[in-house]
Write the structure tokens for this entry.
Amino acid sequence: MNILILTGAGISAESGIPTFRDANGLWEGHDFEEVATPQGFACNPNLVQRFYNERRRALLDPKIKPNAAHIALAKFEQEFLAKQNSPAEPANQFLLVTQNIDDLHDRAGSQNVLHMHGELLKAQCLDSLECYEWREDLHVDTPHPEDPEDERRRGFLRPNVVWFGEMPIGLDQIADAASQADVFIAIGTSGLVYPAAGIVASTPRECRRIEINLDDTPASSAFHETIRGQATVEVPKVLESLGA
Ligand code: OAD
């Protein structure tokens, strides 16, 4: 059996990370064109670095932890992949695609995680495109980790996140997993941002499509089952009903 999961900001909301579009969401009070586009970064790198520095610090606050939904997904994956019904059947496959730039799925122990919108705890060199683990603030004159003494290499690091107008990560792998999915579950995503919002439509007709969200979304009509409630409550129940 092949299972594909897509998560959005709603799964991390109960861990204390604000979503983008709900009341008090991240885009309220921020013009996303200023802080989440390559043009915004070119115009005002200080502002963009500050925006992501604040989010990185918030993510690293010891109070922020994976919640019951992240943990249930990690546990399910482990049990599901360990189970082989019969040697004649193809091995179970599991892919968790997240739009979230936090690391809560990783901290919960999920193994097959694809961060399609990048990772806040990584920095990317604008020159070499190399990525580095990063937990500190970034500034317009941050020394380069490969060559901290070289003045000419200062300020080449950006947060390793995908901005509007940039290509999300892993689209080929996502398309492959979607085309072979037997079960697709979208959790806590508003269904407004493409290409993530289009994944459901690229799963096979016979794929069981489940949406877990507090509310209806523009994508809801593409799902067979729409479950309304909090991710921490509904995700463990749905996974249990699938049986690892
Ligand atoms: P949004 O903020 O657009 O949507 C969050 C969704 O989660 C909403 O549909 C809420 O109803 C739902 N939700 C909130 N709390 C929930 C809870 N406790 N349990 C279940 N559902 C809950 O966030 P995303 O869909 O992730 O992209 O946004 C997609 C992309 O838009 C983000 O990755 C980001 C953003 O702009 C980039 O920055 C490129």
Notes: The beta strands are 2-7, 93-98, 113-115, 118-125, 131-133, 157-161, 183-187, 208-213, 225-228. Residues 99 and 117 are 5 Å apart (CA to CA).
